[in-house]
Amino acid sequence: MLEDPAQGESTSLGGTGRVHVTERCVELEVAETGARRLLAWRSAQVEWDSGAITFIRADGDRLTIKAGDAVTVSGEDLVGDEPVERRVRWVAEPDASCARDVFVVHDARRVEPS
Known about the structure:
By secondary structure, the protein is mainly β.
């Protein structure tokens, strides 16, 4: 989770796939490629409770996400083709074993599993 007031939005598509949750990271296994992306959540938009993530969507609705759920996320890439300088202040820093491809979630929606 990032220390972030959740102001502003980005519409970069992070992908669609299944969510994997461990104690130190939340990853999206992208359906098209099988690659995993580390999902970073903005602190003002997320609450944690017993392995479930309650995410406040861009429209203000709440979405509860658990391990195994299929979702589509949009937001902001922290790793990309062009260098971007952004100060990242982790509230809970991910473990070194987590995917290094970090995607900051600004919005999410549940999808039907494929």
